[in-house]
Amino acid sequence: MDKKYTYLFSEGNGSMKMLLGGKGANLAEMTNINLPVPYGFTITTEACRDYFKAGKVLSDEMEKQIWDNLAKVEEKMGRKFGDKNNPLLVSVRSGAPISMPGMMDTILNLGLNDETVEGLIKATGNPRFALDSYRRFIQMFGDVVMGVEHYNFELAIESVKQRQGVTIDKDLNEESLRSLIEEYKQIVLREKGEQFPSDPKIQLMKAVEAVFSSWYNPRADVYRKMNKISEEIGTAVNVQCMVFGNMGDDSGTGVAFTRNPANGDKHLYGEYLMNAQGEDVVAGIRTPNPISHLEKDAPKIYKQFKDVCQILENHYKDVQDIEFTIQSGKLFMLQTRTGKRTAAAAVKIAVDMVNEGIITKEDAIMRVDPASLDQLLHRHIDESKEMEVIGKGLPASPGAACGKIAFDAYEAHVRAENGEKVILVRTETTPDDIQGVIASQGVLTSRGGMTSHAAVVARGMGRCCVCGCESLKIDAANKKITLGGHTMGENDVISIDGSTGRVILGEVNMIDPVLSDDFKTFLDWADEIARIKVKANADTPADAEKSRKFGATGIGLCRTEHMFMASDRLPIIQKMIMSDTLEEREAELAKLLVFQEDDFYGILKAMDGCETTIRLLDPPLHEFLPDLEEVSINLNTLKITNGDPKKIEETETLLAKVRSLHESNPMMGLRGCRLGVKFPEIYNMQVRAILNATVRLMKEGLHPIPEIEIPLVMDISELSYLKKNALAVAEDVRRETGIDVPCIIGSMLELPRACLLADEIAEEAEFFTFGTNDLTQTTFGFSRDDAEGTFLAYYTNEKLLSDNPFAVVDRKAVGKLVELAVKGAKSKKEISMGVCGEHGGNPESIEFFDSIGVDFVSCSPFRVPIARLAAAQSYIKNKK
C-alpha cells in the first residue's frame, strides 16, 4: 500500500506533530475547532526523509498526492491554480515537529506569472495589490529557491522608491511596480543565467523541494545543534491558499502572543501592519503598530481576534504565538504555536496559570526550561549611576548588555571567539544571522518590532535585544553608526537595555538581580515534587550564603585547595612543601591551621544546620610551586647576570624541589588521598581545623554539620588508614575541649576501581560523592583540558560522541560505573550518595542520576535553581 504523504488540514489534528510538523498539526487543529483557517494541506515529515533518502528527488507518488490534494483545495475555493482569469495562489511554508522559528524557508504568492497577474488584477479590480504580490513573489522565490542574493532585490526597490520619491514600499504606484517586476526578472537572469520560471506547476514543485532542502541550511544546522534537535526528524511542508493583507487599507497582517512573552503579563502582545504581508512584520521591513491600536483601525476585527486568542489559549492551555491576516475586512488565522518566552515570563505565566486553575503544579514545572533560569540570575543596569542615553528603541528582549559594536554576524562570531564582548548592530537581522546572535552579548536593530526575527530569536536565547531604534543610522560599509549626535565605530562600546529599549553610550554599571515572588513560589513547588536534593559547590562564606539564597540544602563540595592560593598563605604552603623534615613541615602547618580554622568557621556558620562536605587537599603539591620552566629561566638569568649568590642558591634549591615533585602525568600521580598517606600531617591539620571551627560554633549555640571527605580513594585500605588518623585527631579535640564534636568521614569516588569496589569501601565510609569530572577522565582515558582543546569538538561534530562527556554524563560507561557503585554501596547499608562534578548542574545528567537512586547533586551556586527545577522535572518524567 502506498504511503500517505499528504494530509488535508481537515484530515489531521494537533497530536500529529511528528508527522505533520508543528505548523501543520496546529493548522489542522484550528480547522477542527472551526476557526477561520485558509484551506490547504501538509506534506509530511516522512516525505521529507524519503526525499533525502532518494537523493533529493520527489517521487512520482509524492507529486501525484500533491496534485490530488491541490485539486480538492481548488474545488473548495472555486478557483484554479494557474488559471489566467481568477488564479488560486498558494503559500509554501516549512513546519518542523519542534518549533524552529525563522530557520527554514517560506514562499508566498506562488502561482503568479505575467498572465495570472493580469487575471488577479481583473478578479480583484486592484492592480496595485496584484503587482505588489507579484514583485514579492519574484523576490522571495528568487532568493529562497533560486539562490539570488537578497540584497540585489533590495538595491533595486530602493532605487525605484527614490525615482518615485517615496520611502515606504506600500506607496509604490502601478507604474513603478511594473518597472520593478521587469527589473527583478532581469536580476534573476543576470545572476542565475536562466529565466524566472513562469509555469505555476514548476514553481510549486521547486518551492516544495527548496523548503525540504532548507532543513539542512546552515542556520537550521546551528539552531538544531544549539537546541539538541535531531536532524533525523525532517520538516513538513504546508501548501495553503493565500489570503492577502496587502489588498488595501481594510487589509493587514500581524503577529501576536496571548500573553506578554517578555514579562508574562496577561494581555495581548503583538504588532500588525495594514496593507502589508506577513514578512513585513517578522522581517522588520517596516516598524509595525502595537496590537492594541487595531481596536481603532478595525474594532470588529479586534474583538473577533481577542475572542480567537482566548479560544486558542484555553484549548492549548498555554500561551500561543499567532499569525493572522485580514483580507478585505475578514480575519484569517495562519498559524498558532506555543509562544517562545523569556525565563521571567515563563515562570510568571506558569504560576499565573496554576492560580487561574488552567494547569496543575506539575504542568507548570514542565513548562519552563531549566537552562533558561540562568537569564534570571544575572545582573542588570544600576539606575543610580549616571549614564548618557543616546537612543531609544523597542524593548524586545529583557536584560542588559555592554560590548563593542559588531556590524555583521560573522564578525560578531569571530570577535567573540577571540574573547571580545560585542553587540550585534544591524538594520534588521535575518535567520542567517543566528551565529552572530549566539556570539553577541545583545542585539540592536534600527528597524523591526517586538515580533521581528531579531526579537523572537533573542528572547529564545536569553539575549537582550532592542529593536526599531529608528534614529540609529548604520553605515555598514564603513563600519560606522550615528546615534544621539555620536558617531561610533567597531572599537566603541555601547550598552543596551532590553527591558526599556534604551541605548547608552559606553559601559554601564550592573547590579545583582532581585528574584521575584513568582520565582520563589515556582521553585518551592519544584522542591515539593523532586526526590533528589540539590546542594552547592562553595569554597567561601560568600558563596555559601549565595547558595542558601538560591535554595541549596547544603554544600556538597568545599574545595580546600582554593584556600591556600591567597597571597598571605601561598608563601607558607610553599615553605611547608620545601621543608625537609616532619618538624619543619608541622611548624608551617601550624601557621596554616589558624587560616584554615577561620575559613571553615565562616563556611560552617553560613551553612548552619546544613550538611557541609569539606574535601581534604586534592591536587598535587607542585601546583602550589612556580612552574619548572619558569624557575629554570630565572636561575639561568641570575647566573648570566651575576646575580646575588644567596638568591642563586635559593633558586637552585627551589628548582631541585620542583624537579623532585615533577610528574609525567600529575593527574594520575601523587595527589588526593595519596598525599594524606605520604604526608599524614597535612590531612591531620585540616581535620583539626574543621573540628576546631565546629567546636567554636557549637559553643555559640549553632548547629554545624561538617562532613570530612577523603578524595581519590581506590581501595578500602586507604580510607581505613586515613579515617583512623582523622578519628584520632577528633578524639584529641574532644579531650581538649570537652565537647563531643561530630566527625563524619566519607569518600569521593573518582576512579573506576573505587566504583567497582564501592560495596567494600562502604564498610568504612559514612557517605559518598562522585567526582564525575575525574571519573570521566579516568574512564575515557583522556585529560579534559587536552581533549576539549584539541579533538573533542571533532568527535561531537562527526557524531563519534553524541555530547561532550564533561558537559553531559556518559550514560554508557561513566553512568554504568555510578549505577554499579550506588547499587553496591546501598546493598550494604543506608548511605547518602551524591554527585558533585560539572554534571551536578546539567539537567540531562540530573535526570539520569535521579533514575538510578543518587540522593543529591551539587553544583555551582548560580546553577542551584536550574538543578532544583531539573530535579522536579526528572521526578515527573521518571514517574510516568
Describe this structure in words.
This protein is of the alpha/beta class and 880 residues long. Helix content is 46%, strand content 17%. The protein has 34 helices and 33 strands. An 8-stranded mixed sheet has the order 14-24-23-16-17-18-19-15. Helix 15 links the parallel strand 16 and strand 17. Helix 4 runs antiparallel to helix 5 and helix 5 packs parallel to helix 7. The chain is elongated. The two termini are 35 Å apart.
Biggest sheet, strands in spatial order? 14-24-23-16-17-18-19-15
The structural class is alpha/beta
Overall average pLDDT? 91
Give the strand content. 15-25%
Low-confidence stretches: none
Radius of gyration: 33 Å
Any idea what the shape is?
elongated
- Give the tally of β-strands: 33
Helix content class: 40-55%
Number of helices: 34
